[in-house]
Amino acid sequence: MIIAVDGPAASGKSTLARRLADALGYLYVDTGVMYRTVTSAALRQSVDIDDEQAVTRIALDLDIDVRPPTQLDGRQYDVLLDGKDITWEIRSPAVDKNVSQVSIYAGVRQAMTKVQRQIGLRGDVVMVGRDIGTVVLPEADLKIYLDASVEARAQRRFDEIVARGERANYEETMAWMRDRDHLDSTREIAPLRAAPDAVILDSTVMDAEQVFTAALALARKV
Known about the structure:
By secondary structure, the chain is of the alpha/beta class.
């Protein structure tokens, strides 16, 4: 079975996808790791991140795969580049700083969509992102779109930052969230939207446990 989980930032979609994968014994795939891998490769090759054509050429040449975790070090999957484990390498501060820019390039997104489809079509997978049910895996057996109000999502992100011991401003977090929503929903390639046949769950009025229970029940009916 293929399960697609989409939704805006801080809706809780990654938490939901991880829990579903664990409960069902499926592979959990966060498509964000693809863009992190491209970013890491570009930085290693000293390519200008603002050079869209150069970054796209790198993306087209990469052999990326995501497999079940082989080490008990907190990872949720293995990320492989040309067969080499780079799971933690792509979590560097330099990648964090540049991945957003890389992920908006049309050529990079198209290249990564092909990789994501190859992984997803193996089956027994829960894949999370913003365009899984609409673009990457429109044939998914179950499509879930997890939504929440922008106020609720901004509060969650604010709380996460504070919990890490970092300084945060709620108004700035809200502004960032609105900007991110606008960028995701208006981009030319694969804009954020719910697939016509997706089941929409609203985590504004449901806690994480309620969302998980509802989603797991849906999966077991497929």
